[in-house]
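Narrative progress, year one. The postdoctoral researcher (J.K.) led the effort to move from monomer predictions toward full complexes, under supervision of the PI. The following entry was the first complex the group processed end to end, covering 660 residues in total.
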Amino acid sequence: MNNQNILATALVSVFAFTAAISHAADPLPSWNNGKSRLSIVDFVEKVTKPGSPDFVPAAERIATFDNDGTLWAEQPMYFQFLFAFDRVKVLAPQHPEWKDKEPFASLLKGDLKGALAGGEKALMEIVGATHSGLTTEEFEKIVREWIATAKHPATKQPLTGMVYQPMLELLSYLRANGFKTFIVTGGGIEFVRVFAEQVYGIPPEQVIGSSGKLKFEMRDGKPVLVKLPAIDFIDDKDGKAIGIQQHIGRRPIAAFGNSDGDLQMLQWTAAGPGARFCLYVHHTDAAREFAYDRESHIGKLDKGLDEAAAKGWTVVSMKNDWKTIYPAGN
Amino acid sequence: MNNQNILATALVSVFAFTAAISHAADPLPSWNNGKSRLSIVDFVEKVTKPGSPDFVPAAERIATFDNDGTLWAEQPMYFQFLFAFDRVKVLAPQHPEWKDKEPFASLLKGDLKGALAGGEKALMEIVGATHSGLTTEEFEKIVREWIATAKHPATKQPLTGMVYQPMLELLSYLRANGFKTFIVTGGGIEFVRVFAEQVYGIPPEQVIGSSGKLKFEMRDGKPVLVKLPAIDFIDDKDGKAIGIQQHIGRRPIAAFGNSDGDLQMLQWTAAGPGARFCLYVHHTDAAREFAYDRESHIGKLDKGLDEAAAKGWTVVSMKNDWKTIYPAGN
């Protein structure tokens, strides 16, 4: 090749590259054009544009996402409870006393309603019994194996296929614009971390969640961390703002939730100086997903809906704003 | 310019760039050539070389650093206590009862020995009284203002100038090789975060430390997080391994400490599969810094020194391995 040819080749490469960029210009293909989508793009453009009065340095572009009901489905119950229920069945032979002890007795008879009659206390008992007594590594392995095959009771789809395609695009779009994306979930931190990196592109150190106490122990000269049946932190409501402070130590500039449990995270985010973005995912699509809000036992969105209206936060209607709900090919 | 000139200009740029790289080839200029330095470079090269049997993907290149005595000095006492003592003086007018109450009474008379006679309990009382009752934002502002002017009692140097230059180079070297660097400190998480980004290049979300409980509160319609006088977590000894699990959720492949308080972090790091690197900074330089180990009340290094010898961990002699201790120009 002579010099002119080298130059020509280089120029062709540059044009090809530019074409590739403009071809990939729609980072949110599953979002309908409308107010919700526009509000997202407007915010991202103004905080990333150098010289803009709303410009935010990359290190401060922290975005936090609730998980259940915001990144993946949460009906008819939080998926982690499906794990806990399956785990009760696996552990039952080691616990003959469960046959006569609620909530385990009902659960083992397949009577979910009876098991849940004990309310939150019963649920916590089930979670305690199924999420402790293991090392962190044993627990991770069990969750990894479980989630690889677990199916949704109604749709029969793999649970990790019931993530929201428009939210996956939003996560990628934010990261492509220099944001650091975090999960801030009421779910168990060690449960969600197992799949967050593969499914959402969010590494374990960017997952904040509820946790149990841990104990450092030497076993055959090797250190292990044992999961104790004692709650360490509940990452819900007030706990979401507190968890953000303890783990991130920097206030998010954007926060995404779907329920009243996320309200304090959105309030905390909104109260900082400069441009801020708060978004609620509103479950309005009974045909393609589920429709619920103010009266729901799971993912209740009542106060949050009022505050979003009062403060001008973005409220995404899954029915109207999203072209698709789940990724293709499930 | 014609095409040939453009090409010539481009080639000159490429050569200049290559020369700049090879000129900057020593990433650890303050480290003497010797076993310690060699062990670091060997480890980094083998875990970053594609195709090497010890190769570790970038996402898993987690390196954790103790702060006091590992990244900056800790004698004659942890610098955070200097902050707490200064704070007692500032707050004294609001606490007339301190005149007759230990450890405050001794402290206010300038009798440090008397104040510390109460041991850890007295210290915790001082920390509790000076680190709570504020919002997280108020506390951050106070620490920021204090550290901008605080001087070391013996050297009269700014405290942030008493960081170790060789460790700053090590942090940069690891990051340039795709590592994510974390601080795992027994010190207060909200204290260290104030200067960690500017001084060490470590953002707040990569600082793990001891913490107090927080309370979410609305004040004039604005959410605040109030620091309560109750301990939430002590990030020392067993707590270092636990803190790493809770915050990072992934085992480090390299860990750096200087005392027995770091031993569990090093054990936890060493116990993972694949290539691992553990390093102790040994304070051996009475002339340029301080010399202490097995008998010291602060930064005691006793069991750790034995275990390092038994396991073949790197033990850095500050006297022999480091050309300089502090950054130039303090």
